[in-house]
Amino acid sequence: MPARRVLVVGVDGVRLDTLRRLTTPHLDALAAGGFLTPVEVDESTPTMSGPCWATVVTGVEVAKHGVWSNDFSGHRLDVFPDFATRLDHHDHRRTFVAAGWRPLMQARDGGPLFRAPSGTVYIAPRADTPEAWEECDERITEAAARVLAEDDAEASFVYLGAPDETAHFHGCAEAYEDAVRRADARLGRLLAAVRSRPSFTGEEWTYLVVTDHGHTDAGGHGGRSAAERTAWLAAAGPGIGPAPARVRHADVAAQVYAALGRHPDRHWTLDGRPFAARPDAVLLDMDGTLVDTESLWLRTVRETAPAIGTDDLASVLGRSTADTAAFLHPLTGTGPGALAAELESRFLDAVRREAGPLPGALELLDLLGEAGLATALVSASARPVVDAVLKTLAAQGAPAFGTTVAAGETRRTKPAADPYLAAARALGADPAACLAVEDSPTGVAAAEAAGCRVLAVPSYAPIGPAARRTVRHGLPDLTVEDLWAAGL
User: Fold this and answer.
1) Residue 41: CB partners within 8 Å, gap ≥ 6?
2) Is residue 283 classed as helix, strand or coil in its secondary structure?
3) Would you say the C-alpha torsion 405, 387, 471, 375 has a positive or negative sign?
4) CB half-sphere exposure, 142, CA atoms < 13 A
5) What is the secondary structure of 339-363 as a DSSP string?
6) Could you give the C-alpha distances from 165 to 168, 324, 351, in angstroms and in order?
7) Alpha-carbon span 111 to 395, nearest angstrom
8) DSSP-assigned letter for residue 36
9) Concatenated DSSP letters for 387-434?
10) Residue 59, helix vs strand vs coil
């Protein structure tokens, strides 16, 4: 698997409407390969650099990190550190930060925001003027480009401050627009440095370019106007597709972790959520998801218990034969054991004769194989049925699963979490970092009880959207970007 790397570039104080008016080729190219989208500064956060950058790099909102102004005194950055420090401290990953604004880098005014990255470059401007900040950004870019081209940092942050300082002096007019164009040119040099790496062809790079706040026309900020509260984020890299409906500053740090394959510890209590994350594994339901067996199952139930009502049929979707037999027993008078055996026999015979892959199923399995993702088949059907379906899929050229779980092979079956937990354990994956693909409410309940992300493709019973659940009507035309975004 390629080595994963992340570059975050923070450009201070760039208005989104200004950015959209200008030709910024390097930022435009990133947006074309991923997205550029507005970010609204949270209502509780002052539109100042300190609070906004703290939210960007810690992944938590101002109430947690405690940076309320450009004086960082009273912060809680020891509890909620920046991503560069956390990755270095917890995972011993090399990280790098380059910046010229003192509170980001030095123990002044309550700083630094970046507590202890693996490596840093700090070059302060000689004065707080646009000209001095242009010179500072130039030196920061030159130094950062050398590190990006030669070092092996997995996550880097580079700060450019000249546009903000220019707005403060000259307002959001021609000089400000020129400063934004120069920042884009410096971004281009950073990207070129990355591409020049001898190891670049064996790496996967995620790029995140973000601003902290906007400006009034006169050049100030700190208020609550739309111009001040509207920031933006551009993102490109593996699995990053169109922009989600809403992106927040806190999502940036969460995306850094996701891009590196680092599943955050729940004790970090991040407020941000990634918008694209490669799953550790994909755990797939069988009946009604990959193969057209739900119709065969419902037909089997109707033939075995003709008295069943239409509304009750949804209750047997995604459930084991034993659970279904217990449900049907009052309607048939047949003992649950004999009823289960009859259901099993009829259903298995139908599967062997008629079951085939659903539209998009084989393409999805091929896509997962090409992406190098571990897979599991997690079914509430009995082992003979599962084996019959595996034989059918293999005959169609489907790649093998890393593991399979059938009814009766865990203490409880769906809707309990046990089958999904067993599958994740067999693959050596964290269930919370796995994506489950399900078609029934019963299966979704099982996957979510295990803590999985869920991609729901409803078959016969409706399934609504929810947290960590994406609903899609069918498997055809799924892309890597769809999978990376599902359930986030």
Assistant:
1) 47, 52, 213, 228, 229, 230, 231, 249
2) strand
3) positive
4) 7
5) HHHHHHHHHHHHHHHH--BPTTHHH
6) 5, 69, 69
7) 63
8) E
9) HHHHHHHHHTTPPPPSEEE-TTSSSS-TTSSHHHHHHHHHHT--GGGE
10) coil
Residue with tokens 């379906």: 389
**Torsion over CA: 189, 259, 13, 72 (sign):** negative
Q: How far apart are CA 9 and CA 185, in angstroms?
A: 12
pLDDT, tens digit only, all 488 positions of the chain = 899 999 999 999 999 999 999 999 999 999 999 999 999 999 999 999 999 999 999 999 999 999 999 999 999 999 999 999 999 999 999 999 999 999 999 998 899 999 999 999 999 999 999 999 999 999 999 999 999 999 999 999 999 999 999 999 999 999 999 999 999 999 999 999 999 999 999 999 999 999 999 999 999 999 999 999 999 999 999 999 999 999 999 999 999 999 999 998 889 999 999 999 999 999 999 999 999 887 887 787 777 777 676 666 566 666 677 777 777 766 666 676 777 777 777 778 777 888 899 999 999 999 999 999 999 999 999 999 999 999 999 999 999 999 999 999 999 999 999 999 999 999 999 999 999 999 999 999 999 999 999 999 999 889 999 999 999 999 999 999 999 999 99
Cis peptide before 25 (omega within 30 of 0): no
CA angle 393/398/400 to nearest 5° reads: 95
Closest CA to 67 of 115, 21, 28, 27: 115
Residues 6 or more apart from 172 whose CB is under 8 A from it? 15, 18, 215, 216, 217, 218, 219
Q: Is 360 left (phi over 0), alpha (psi -120 to 50) or beta?
A: left
Angle between helices 174-195 and 130-150 (to 10 degrees): 10
Under 8 Å between Cβ of 69 and 111: no
Q: Distance of CA 288 to CAs 142, 191, 225, 274, 359, Å?
A: 56, 45, 50, 29, 11
Report which secondary-structure segment, H or E, holds 11. strand 3-11
Q: How far apart are CA 20 and CA 237, in angstroms?
A: 21
Q: How many CA atoms lie within 13 A of 423 on its CB side?
A: 37
- Contacts of 87 by beta carbon, 8 Å cutoff, 6+ apart: 93, 95, 154, 155, 256, 257, 260, 262
- Three-state secondary structure along 128-142? CCHHHHHHHHHHHHH
Collapsing DSSP states into helix, strand and coil, what is residue 158? strand
